Structure formats: C-alpha cells, structure tokens
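Troubleshooting log. The previous structure file for this entry was overwritten by mistake, so regenerating from the original sequence record. Sequence copied from the archived sheet and checked twice against the printout by T.R.
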Amino acid sequence: MRHRKASLKLNRTTSHRNAMFRNMVTSLFKHERIRTTGAKAKELRRWADHLITLAKRGDLHARRQALAIVREKQVVHKLFEEANDKFGHSAGGYTRIVKLGRRAGDAASMSLIELVVLDVADKKKSKKKSTKKAATSKKSAAEAKDDKKPQAKKPQKADAKTKPESKKKVADKKKEGTSKAQKTAQKKSESPKADTKPKTAAKTKATAAKKQKPPEDKPIGDSKKKDA
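Regenerated output below.
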C-alpha cells in the first residue's frame, strides 16, 4: 500500500526531481507538447493540472504561486491570460498522454504529453451558429403567428411627399402638350403644300399670258394670186 508516498522518486533526489519537473512544466506550457518517458509524463500531469487551476483562479496570490514554480515570467503571464478561454470548458483533464513506443537503446516507454486546448475561434463560431439558429427559429415562429392572424386592411393615407410630385407630373404633362402642339404647327408650316402655292400661281399667270397674245399675221388670199 502506498501510504504517505506523494510522488514518484524516479531514482533522483528531491531537489533534482523538483528542478527537473519545473523545467518540464515550463517547456510544456511554452510549446504545448513535449516528448518524454511514460513515468515522467504521468507525474508531470499533476504539476500541469495544479498550475492550470491556479491560472483559472487568476488572483495575485495564485500568480505568485505559479511564478515560484515556472521558470519564465512570460509563460506565466500568457497562461493566466488565456486559461479561462482555453481550459474553462472543464474542471480537469487538461492534458493528454499518447504512447509512442519504446526508445532505442534502453527500451524505455516513450510518451507525448500535450495540452487539451479548446480554440477560442471554435467557441465563437459555435456561439454565432447558435445565435443564428435561435434568430431564424424566432423569425419562423413570428411569421407563423402572423399568417394565422387575420390581417385587417389599413386605409391607405396619401403621403405628404407624393403631393408635390403629382403637381410636378401635371405641369410636365402640360409642358409636353404645348411642345407637341408647337411641333405640329411647325410641321404644317414646313409641309409641301405651302411650297406648291407659288408654283400653281405662276402656271396660271403663264396660261393667261398665252391667251392674251395676238394671233400672228397671215397672208390674205392664196399665194398664186400674188404671183399673178
């Protein structure tokens, strides 16, 4: 029975073991996945879960506790800023261990430990989809209610904006009528009948002049008598 045995010793002293896991957890949060042996990965998971719970708490005391473990300040600040977005979906199970097989040389079982992160973009997309679906369902329900209700005919009121437009239309029509009348008058004045009148008058004058000409003088009697 494992009473009063908090962690694996891994054939190391306490100071050596703590320094090793501090370096490993720092690199885990920096790169989000590392490759190590199976025993170290199982023990590292405890350290990572503890730091993530501190980051989700987010107060000053929790930040100082995390800085006492993690080697780099930037990694701690990044973890505390993104903890609720990345790990707020669950209350545990923040890491995943994948077995990779045996290591060449000593045949130690190797594993890949990585953070289980829920992307913020996926959350936003899911929220947008849910809001769109809710909006469409509400619209469809409202349309169905409107279809069921008998729609009363409302008296159409003449808008104030349409009145000046109607007056303008009437004025434009009057202008168009006057312009059409002017065009027809011009066409009549330019018609070929007006041109034919002076020609006919000239013809009548020529015929009258021909009638008024005196007849040509003709010799009286026969030509034989004159010769005699």
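The chain is about 65% helix and 10% strand. Archived copy saved in two places this time.
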